[in-house]
């Protein structure tokens, strides 16, 4: 007999759901804004944002309205036909990036797959196919995605790994130049490495990769799945990284993958291709049944409208800057617990000192131990690897909510520092 709702749901999972995720022992029921409530009614401040997905928080009326109104009108017709919503969303995304075209899919991994296929098509006639990606990168869990991802843990047990990818150290321009072979056709990087632990690309690196790709006639591809969609204060993170940087005028990658915040929780992915590369994918060359459905596109358009009307890009920059400076001063007070603080806009976080006695007592990763403590205090965050904690809250996070989250973080860090 089950004691309560929590246990009975856990039981359904252990009996019927593939155990591929390491889940925390929390069962959620509903949310509003940055707040989310578990099945016993306990409130949590959701600073993990569903891993950078819930850009307007939970149960935002603009998303509900778009879902309700569009589903009354037209949910799906397939890409055998045209719809206004897909065309309008493509125009909005190209408007935020630059001259080019957009393909719609349903996830981040699929968006990257589209970029891989574009690169292969681009190099096909010269026999070039190899794509360079960075160590510590993350590009999704498909066979192509794990081949591209520069972390052994996602590949283990799934060999043979799809050929055509090689990894290079991130932010190391010389290493990129030295790695280029006659088969190399593209370089793919994240503007800010997310799963790999919150490492922004430097402006010099991005500009250098652009120049290298131009020189060798290779495509420069960027994975903006996590760091994109105004999280850094600009639509794409490279726009933020390169702003006010001399020599960055007119900088554009050749392809950009998007997902996560694009749909605010409704599954949608997309990739943008620069003109004229966009026209390499001619009729019949690529497709997906659900891609760019009027329902998904209506939701994404509704989100963009709110971001623009409420000036959430500037808001993310300001409130993110405040969070970063508060965390930085916390790290200065507790160097035994916090090794460093990094990020941009509302993609910030901190690295823990794994060797601190408070962590070494347990075999559980330091990042997970800290998440557990945050949960006890009513705060959700997103771990990245064994020692980094990310804050990826909604773009409309209020100052008082940021303060509440920071107060919990301070309290937990202080208590850890006291433990020896
Ligand atoms: C989440 C993520 C992906 C994969 O997206 P899915 O929607 O899970 O397939 C790819 N790249 C980056 C940078 C991500 O953060």
Describe the overall structure.
The protein has helices at 5-16, 49-52, 61-73, 84-97, 108-123, 143-148, 152-155, 173-179, 203-215, 237-242, 294-309, 312-333, 357-360, 366-376, 399-418; strands at residues 28-32, 35-38, 43-46, 100-105, 130-134, 165-168, 184-190, 192-193, 199-200, 219-223, 255-258, 269-274, 338-344, 347-352, 379-380, 382-384, 388-391. It is of the alpha/beta class. The protein folds into two domains: 2-59 and 311-417, Aspartate Aminotransferase, domain 1 (Alpha-Beta Complex), CATH 3.90.1150; 74-309, 3-Layer(aba) Sandwich (Aspartate Aminotransferase, domain 2), CATH 3.40.640. The chain has a seven-stranded mixed beta sheet, with helices on both faces. α3 runs antiparallel to α11. 47% of the residues are buried. Bound molecules: pyridoxal-5'-phosphate.
- Taken from the alpha-carbon principal axes, the silhouette is globular
- Share of helix among residues? 40-55%
CATH class membership of the largest domain: Alpha Beta
- CATH topology value of the largest domain: Aspartate Aminotransferase, domain 2
The CATH superfamily of the largest domain turns out to be Type I PLP-dependent aspartate aminotransferase-like (Major domain)
What ions, cofactors and ligands are bound? pyridoxal-5'-phosphate
Major beta sheet, strand line-up: 4-12-11-10-7-5-6
Strand proportion? 15-25%
Please identify, by name, the CATH architecture of the largest domain.
Answer: 3-Layer(aba) Sandwich
Give the termini distance in whole angstroms.
41 Å
Low-confidence stretches: none
Provide the domain count: 2
Q: Give the helix/strand class.
A: alpha/beta
State Rg: 22 Å
Largest sheet: 7 strands, mixed
Mean pLDDT: 97
Q: Count the beta strands.
A: 17
């Amino acid at each position: 007999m089950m004691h309560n709702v929590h246990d009975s749901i856990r039981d359904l999972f252990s009996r019927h759901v593939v155990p591929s995720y390491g889940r925390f022992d929390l069962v959620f029921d509903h949310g509003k804004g940055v707040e989310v409530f578990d099945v016993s009614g306990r409130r949590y401040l959701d600073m993990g944002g569903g891993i950078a997905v819930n850009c307007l928080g939970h149960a935002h009326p603009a998303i509900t309205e778009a879902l309700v109104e569009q589903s009354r009108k037209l949910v799906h017709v397939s890409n055998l036909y045209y719809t206004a919503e897909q065309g309008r969303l493509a125009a909005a995304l190209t408007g935020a990036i630059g001259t080019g075209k957009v393909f719609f899919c349903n996830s981040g991994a699929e968006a990257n797959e589209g970029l891989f296929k574009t690169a292969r098509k681009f190099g096909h006639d010269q026999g070039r196919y190899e794509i360079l990606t960075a160590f510590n990168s993350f590009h999704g869990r498909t066979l192509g995605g794990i081949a591209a991802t520069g972390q052994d843990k996602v590949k283990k047990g799934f060999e043979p790994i799809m050929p055509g990818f090689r990894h290079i150290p991130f932010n190391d321009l010389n290493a990129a130049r030295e790695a280029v072979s006659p088969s190399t056709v593209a370089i793919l990087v994240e503007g800010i490495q997310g799963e790999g632990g919150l490492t922004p690309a430097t402006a010099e690196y991005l500009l250098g990769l652009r120049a290298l790709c131009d020189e060798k006639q290779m495509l420069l591809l960027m994975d903006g799945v996590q760091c994109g969609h105004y999280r850094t204060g600009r639509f794409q993170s490279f726009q933020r990284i390169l702003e006010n940087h001399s020599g960055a005028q007119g900088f554009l990658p050749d392809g950009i993958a998007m997902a996560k915040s694009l749909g605010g929780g409704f599954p949608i992915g997309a990739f943008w291709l620069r003109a004229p590369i966009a026209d390499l994918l001619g009729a019949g060359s690529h497709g997906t049944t659900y891609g760019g459905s009027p329902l998904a596109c209506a939701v994404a358009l509704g989100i963009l409208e709110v971001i623009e009307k409420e000036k959430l890009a500037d808001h993310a920059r300001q409130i993110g800057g405040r969070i970063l400076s508060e965390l930085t001063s916390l790290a200065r007070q507790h160097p035994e617990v916090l090794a460093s603080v990094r990020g941009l806009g509302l993609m910030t976080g901190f690295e823990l000192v794994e060797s601190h006695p408070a962590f070494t007592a347990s075999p559980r990763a330091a990042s997970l131990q800290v998440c557990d403590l945050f949960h006890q205090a009513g705060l959700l965050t997103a771990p990245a690897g064994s020692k980094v904690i990310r804050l990826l809250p909604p773009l409309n996070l209020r100052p008082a909510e940021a303060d509440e989250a920071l107060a919990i973080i301070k309290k937990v860090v202080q208590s850890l520092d006291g433990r020896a």
